[in-house]
Design brief:
The protein has 196 residues and is mostly helical. The protein is 70% helix and 0% strand. Helix 1 packs antiparallel against helix 3. The chain starts with a helix and ends in a 10-residue tail after the last helix. The model has no long low-confidence stretch (mean pLDDT 90).
Length: 196
């Protein structure tokens, strides 16, 4: 019974994380109706999204100890140390790029700010380093928990994080106009563009 409740919470929290995060990346559009308070509201949407993301992480741990009674192996067939090695190999580059993105985004990472200028640093090379790094954290957790099911479930985060980026860019075009459109032409979404 707990396994099904846990899975339900995992799925619902993933949806709510997605819902609130998408709402959080539209402050400029929301400002047209609400005024400057839109940025404060989007900050709270972002915090709510983070809370639901944390709940999903907790359900991953719950699943490891009480898995669903389905015909998928509870753990990988290889020794646990192999999963730890895979997790470390994924975590080093993904956490590095995520934290570099956070450094250059500053407070904007959690609290959208109307007066924030366009980014520098790694953002001159790729537009969404935080998303690129964070999406792989789910696989790090799944491998540390030695779970094939959680590794498969983690695949849902690829389209979710892509959606986050697409929705955020719609609002950034409203905020920065032609400057952002030109930035999109020059800078790759997740990987640097070749110089022309």
């Amino acid at each position: 019974m707990f396994a099904f409740v846990n899975l339900g919470i995992m799925i619902i929290s993933s949806f709510l994380c997605t819902f609130f995060y998408v709402k959080s990346v539209h402050p400029a559009a929301l400002e047209k109706n609400l005024g400057a308070i839109a940025y404060v509201r989007c900050k709270w949407y972002r915090i709510l999204a983070s809370v639901f993301e944390l709940i999903v992480a907790v359900t991953y741990v719950g699943y490891r100890f009480v898995p669903l009674p389905i015909p998928v192996h509870m753990q990988f067939s290889w020794p646990y140390w192999v999963s730890v090695g895979i997790a470390m190999a994924i975590s080093i580059p993904s956490l590095w790029i995520m934290f570099i993105g956070l450094k250059y985004a500053g407070k904007e990472a959690i609290a959208p700010n109307k007066d924030h200028t366009m980014y520098s640093g790694i953002y001159k090379r790729i537009r969404h380093p935080q998303a690129l790094g964070e999406v792989f954290v789910w696989f790090v957790i799944a491998f540390l928990l030695h779970s094939p099911f959680l590794t498969l479930f983690s695949l849902i985060w690829f389209p979710i994080f892509y959606l986050f980026c697409v929705e955020e860019e719609k609002d950034l075009i409203i905020r920065y106009g032609e400057t952002y459109i030109d930035y999109k032409r020059r800078v790759g979404m997740f990987f640097p563009k070749k110089s022309v």
